[in-house]
Amino acid sequence: MRRDRQRLFRMASLQGETAKRLVPEAAEDLNSFVLWQDGVVWKRSDAAIRVLVGLRVPGAKILALVPRPLRDFAYSVVAKNRYRWFGKRETCRLPSADERSRFLP
Questions:
Q1: CA dihedral 47, 81, 94, 44 (to 10 degrees)
Q2: CB within 8 A of 1, min separation 6: which ones?
Q3: How far is Cα 28 from Cα 25, in angstroms, rounded to an integer?
Q4: pTM of the entire structure?
């Protein structure tokens, strides 16, 4: 959210009403990352790349040249090890009122 200065993205829990309505198949894999954009569902590394491109991260488009199976494998490795590598907080920070407006039910 901090990097999305243009407010391109809104968030929803995969267990929430919005995700159940728009991407019901996503509820089967709660460890995944899903992007619903212009009526198309993007998952795992495809979703991550689209978000990076939307946030104008340098070099993000180049990642799309890597074959999807290899990208998804790397995505899975990072997802499984993220807490070990980057740490895990005991509590989640509460969003500000402005940030709360960007969460979907």
A1: 10
A2: 11, 95, 99, 102
A3: 6
A4: 0.78
How many CB atoms lie under 10 A from the CB of residue 75? 20
Q: How big is the chain, counted in residues?
A: 105
**pLDDT interval class at 70 (50, 70, 90):** very high
- 14-34, pLDDT tens digit by residue? 888 888 888 777 766 666 788
Q: Which residue has the tokens 């005991």?
A: 90
| 3-class secondary structure per residue, the chain | CCCCCCCCCCECCCCCHHHHHHCHHHHHCCCCCEEEECCEEEEHHHHHHHHHHHCCCCCHHHHCCCCHHHHHHHHHHHHHHHHHHHCCCCCCCCCCHHHHCCECC
Q: Left, alpha or beta for 29 (phi > 0: left; psi -120 to 50: alpha)? A: beta
